């Protein structure tokens, strides 16, 4: 009758009789057991097989078992090692533990000592493996691995972000709406020493001045109408971790002063409080505005700008990343096809040509929405050009038009108008689809004469 293995062990010992005996005892306990007569053979098996626990003799013909413990832990940190020592070599076992071994046992000890020790080592190894798997999943979900692209602009941005991630420096992410600034902020946090603490994100344009101050810094009971209980702000919630301030250019002047104080002293005062609150928070910020120009106009504090822009990373628009459009589209196809339970394997050549010819004023966010729509409408196993919105019908002609191709404000105005048409004039819904704050939308409507 087949039984479920309790884990996999590797026994390394050049004494064949003892090795076979130990392997048999462990097999009877429900473990799957591999064998190796030398350290070199054992290391080769570890490279090719999934092993939870290694039991190794100290005296091996090629490498000392103590050094072997160090080598194994360096290459396979989730593997636990039990060292077998001969009489009078207990010091070897102690040294092996210092090198990363789980424990040691003297050769010839009875099975009552071996089995419990192996069981404890196996429990720890399995737990370690699960932790590593969770960390890998987290990195894939929030780390740099989720950023798709091989074009020069995006790879340069990733290199810069990786280098600054561990420095605890304030970072200002620049780029058009929809270029993935929050994704970069999450990746920087995940690659930083603060990654076990919270990552908190807020869109500064999504709230009025009063509400935003309460959201960021918190308030005391009775400090204003409706403040029925004390509230922690996001800076306090992010203590020990990272706060991401999106659309920082929309921040009110009074709040800019409070933010500057946090940057300088890691302190702030809650609304209605009389004492300061101390935090340890890394600040990442993002904007699609030229803050240096805004500071020159007096719309943004120059001292805050210089504190925020210690390290700047500019994310390129998707129209400058044509070679990345195909891989991005494929990742979105996989995502949305899984969501709606469809077997869609890719797209036609014409579909990709249309995507690459388009100017993408909404960048990656717009591409994601276009792919989601196409997947919902698709009745075959690949997406074709007929599934694209009407603005893709004559992309070649539009690309040749210098206003469409190069005048960013004209593109943005047209895109906002289309989204408003889609929402039948519902500005709150339009702001949600554009992933900008309502205040930002109203400012742009005024700027483009669309009120």
Can you tell me about this structure?
The structure is a single chain. By secondary structure, the protein is of the alpha/beta class. The protein is built from 20 helices and 16 strands. The chain has 3 domains: 8-139, Rossmann fold (3-Layer(aba) Sandwich), CATH 3.40.50.2300; 146-314, P-loop containing nucleotide triphosphate hydrolases (Rossmann fold); 320-447, Helicase, Ruva Protein, domain 3. It is 50% helix and 14% strand. 34% of the residues are buried. The model is unreliable at 396-406 (pLDDT under 50).
Essential attributes:
alpha/beta, 3 domains, 451 residues, Rossmann fold, 16 strands, 5-stranded parallel sheet, Helicase, Ruva Protein, domain 3
Measured as a percent range, the helix fraction is 40-55%
CATH architecture of the largest domain: 3-Layer(aba) Sandwich
Which consecutive residue ranges, at least 5 long each, have pLDDT under 50?
Answer: 396-406
CATH class of the largest domain: Alpha Beta
Mean pLDDT: 86
